Amino acid sequence: MAEEKQVDVVVIGGGAAGLSAALTLARARRRVVVVDAREPRNAPAAGVHGWLTRDGIPPAALVTIGAREVEQYGGRIRYARAVAARRTPDGFVVDTDRGEPLHARRLLAATGLTDELPQIDGLRERWGRDVVHCPYCHGWEIRDRPIGVLGSVHHALLFRQWSASVTLLRHTSPAPDAQEAEHLAARGIAVVEGVVSALEVADDRLAGARLESGRVVPIAALALAPLLGAQDALLLGLGAETARHPSGAGTHVVADAGGRTSVPGVWVAGNVTDVVAGVVQSAAGGVTAAASINADLVAEDTRVAVDRRRAERFSAELERVNAERVLGARRHGLDSLLSPPS
Ligand SMILES: Cc1cc2nc3c(=O)[nH]c(=O)nc-3n(C[C@H](O)[C@H](O)[C@H](O)COP(=O)(O)OP(=O)(O)OC[C@H]3O[C@@H](n4cnc5c(N)ncnc54)[C@H](O)[C@@H]3O)c2cc1C
Fold first, then answer.
1. Which keywords fit this entry according to its UniProt record (predicted)?
2. What is the C-alpha to C-alpha distance for residues 13 and 270, in angstroms, rounded to an integer?
3. Shortest-distance atom of ligand 1 to CA 128
4. How does residue 337 score in pLDDT terms, banded at 50, 70 and 90?
5. At the N or C end, where does the chain have fewer CB atoms within 10 A?
6. What predicted TM-score, i.e. pTM, was given to this entire model?
């Protein structure tokens, strides 16, 4: 592999995790390319909340600024989808749907996750607006409004922190047990039986949840817990290990605290490995993984330098110089011994 064709790290995914990793790697003077399909998970939301100094920034603006910061240090961004990744004798090759394959010594996947939403008419269109999942991302924006919570007692008790008007819509979930029922009652949370079939919208605002019975429960926001699935297809192809996340919220790619997966040379960061991480935690995961990758590359660079140095000690040129220094004219062997002394 020609040196100039291979970069140190290809980062797949240019959201908060991937860009933070790329920034750290570029500042560590590593050659890094980010491949990004430009579909960050929070794209439907108007603003990113809980990001200190940038609270409320539109998701698209966050990644635009991030990409610029990476490029400022020599990192490259390729807007494309990675469609395959495979191991080579000296690293990895990543095929994309645009441009030449990318060769790298190490891989970092920061591909995020998909939110699997329930099949309810009109729900997908409201996702990230008045249909939400995360109280810390959206709770403030829907405070004091009538909030419906789909199926989860835990979520209902949580969102009660933001509004006194919370209704648990049982939908397809089991009935609360005695203790849960007591908790809900104590917090003034009504429980409505019946499957939700559609959302009612008026003037581009959520107005209610329609049940199969035809009854409409008036709500201004709906909270739910989607099933979370790591975008792990490329990693599975490389043999990475996945598991159910300890939170029970979905699947994730298993990695150590530094983001190192079970596949040598492959790291992960952000929602692909930590499905409950927000933007700040995902960015932090990117920085941690970048430092771990850089340490691994430093170790490899050192190994290579030591091998080269040892090889140089026994080079033909060094042997010639040493022999001349020690043996002088006798270095050519028997000839000098056979010739009579003058
Ligand atoms: C509606 C909504 C609102 C949210 N609001 C907030 C909030 O206010 N505050 C907060 O802290 N968190 C919020 N979150 C959570 C937040 O979205 C995640 O924490 C964050 O996006 C995770 O960052 P990431 O870099 O891991 O993944 P992402 O931001 O999803 O980035 C992954 C990137 O990888 C790319 N990608 C995936 N596969 C490939 C491939 N094969 N090739 C190339 N590129 C690929 C995607 O296109 C995407 O650009 C919200 C989530 C949702 C769903």
1. Flavoprotein, Oxidoreductase
2. 10
3. 1
4. low
5. C
6. 0.91
